[in-house]
Design brief:
Distance between the termini: 14 Å
Strand content: 35-45%
Oligomer: single chain
Largest sheet: 7 strands, mixed
CATH architecture: Beta Barrel
Number of strands: 9
Helix content: 10-25%
Order of helices and strands: EEEEEHEEHEHE
Shape: globular
């Protein structure tokens, strides 16, 4: 999976709430006392159903990785047929403070899940 794509929107966000990988539900702090709750589908991958033991394990891995981050980078793409934004998510290995360094040097969550055998590449 490539880090390069046709990106419509890129924003550094604080992770306030995280509940699933299918879809990933996040509370995004947009600044100026404005927050939005969004359902995101990780672009290009297929994760196990949350009702399965494997799905619960993947959820726990994602919560552990993203829950300790000061912020994450979400690159969003068009909505899928269920109204969820398709997203690439990047996070820093440490408490990074520079969003550009997170995208360039951080971890690409979608690819990390594939590399660890926790998700499969999804072809439309």
């Amino acid at each position: 999976m490539s880090r390069e794509a046709h990106v419509r929107f890129c924003e550094g966000v604080e992770v306030k709430f995280l509940c699933a990988t299918r879809p990933l539900l996040v509370m995004i702090d947009l600044g100026l006392k404005t927050k939005t709750r969004q359902r995101l589908r990780l672009r290009g991958i297929d994760t196990p159903e949350l009702t399965t033991k494997r799905g619960k394990y993947v959820k726990d891995v994602v919560k552990k990785q993203l829950g300790k981050q000061k912020f994450i980078i979400i690159k969003t793409y068009k909505d899928d047929k269920f109204g969820r934004m398709l997203a690439d998510i990047f996070y820093g290995k440490s408490q990074a403070t520079n969003p550009e360094s997170v995208v360039e040097e951080g971890t690409f969550l979608n690819q990390e899940l594939v590399d660890k055998g926790l998700a499969k590449i999804w072809e439309a």
